[in-house]
C-alpha cells in the first residue's frame, strides 16, 4: 500500500545501518489492524479516531476477495498495543527486530461469524474478484466514506477506494498475519478477545450516554 512506502524505506535504512554490526537497536511493532476500527463509528480509544474498514459492523456488511475467505487478519486493540509498547520500553533485554503482536488471529470468515453473533444477524457479504482488485477496481455497491483527518480533501476520494483494495489484496498475500515475538516476550499479558470487545462495543452502543471509551478495555 503506497502510503506505507516510507516505513519500508526506514526499514531498509535500519537494515543497512546494522548490516555489519549492531548500531541502532529497533523493533518493528506489528499489531495488524486495530480491533477498535471494527467499532466504527464509536470512539473506543482516547487518542485514535474511528475509521471504516472492509468489516462494516455498523451496517452489518463486509467484503471478501473470492477464494480468500480464510485469509488471516491479526486484530489487536489500541489498548493492548499501548500496553506492549510500554512494557517494551521498560524491558532491559534486547528487542527482537520483528516485533509481531498478535491480539487475535482470525480469518475473514471468522470475523463475519463474530459479527453475526454480536449484531444479531448474518452480514451481507460482497465478494470481489482478485483481477479486479489488481486492476484498481472495487466492484461493490458501497464503499468507505470517512477518511483519516490527516488526508486532504483532494486525496480523500482516491484513498477511500485504495484502502479497501489494499487491505484485501495484502490479506491474500498473508501481510496481516502478524508474528508473535512480543507475545512471547511478555507471555503474561492477557490480550483482549475480539468477540468480547466487539460484544461490549455493540451492546453498549444502545446506551452510549453511560459509556466512556476506556470502559471498553476493562
TrEMBL record:
GO terms for molecular function: oxidoreductase activity. The keyword NADP applies. Keywords: NADP, Oxidoreductase. Belongs to the NmrA-type oxidoreductase family. Isoflavone reductase subfamily. This is NmrA-like domain-containing protein. The lineage of its organism: Eukaryota, Fungi, Dikarya, Ascomycota, Pezizomycotina.
Amino acid at each position: 500500500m503506497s502510503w506505507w512506502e516510507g516505513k519500508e524505506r526506514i526499514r531498509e535504512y535500519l537494515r543497512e545501518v546494522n548490516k555489519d554490526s549492531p548500531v541502532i537497536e529497533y523493533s518493528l511493532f506489528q499489531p495488524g489492524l486495530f480491533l477498535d476500527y471494527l467499532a466504527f463509528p464509536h470512539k473506543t480509544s482516547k487518542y485514535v479516531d474511528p475509521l471504516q474498514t472492509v468489516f462494516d459492523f455498523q451496517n452489518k456488511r463486509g467484503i471478501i476477495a473470492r477464494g480468500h475467505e480464510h485469509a488471516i487478519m491479526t486484530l489487536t486493540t489500541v489498548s493492548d498495543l499501548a500496553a506492549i509498547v510500554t512494557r517494551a520500553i521498560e524491558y532491559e533485554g534486547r528487542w527482537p527486530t520483528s516485533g509481531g503482536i498478535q491480539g487475535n488471529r482470525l480469518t475473514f470468515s471468522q470475523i463475519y461469524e463474530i459479527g453475526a453473533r454480536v449484531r444479531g444477524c448474518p452480514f451481507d457479504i460482497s465478494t470481489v474478484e482478485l483481477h479486479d482488485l489488481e486492476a484498481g477496481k472495487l466492484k461493490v455497491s458501497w464503499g468507505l466514506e470517512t477518511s483519516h483527518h490527516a488526508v486532504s480533501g483532494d486525496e480523500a476520494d482516491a484513498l477511500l477506494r485504495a484502502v479497501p483494495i489494499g487491505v484485501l489484496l495484502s490479506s491474500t498475500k498473508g501481510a496481516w498475519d502478524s508474528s508473535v515475538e512480543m507475545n512471547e516476550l511478555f507471555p503474561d499479558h492477557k490480550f483482549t478477545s475480539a468477540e468480547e470487545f466487539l460484544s461490549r462495543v455493540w451492546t453498549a452502543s444502545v446506551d452510549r450516554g453511560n459509556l466512556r471509551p476506556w470502559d471498553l478495555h476493562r
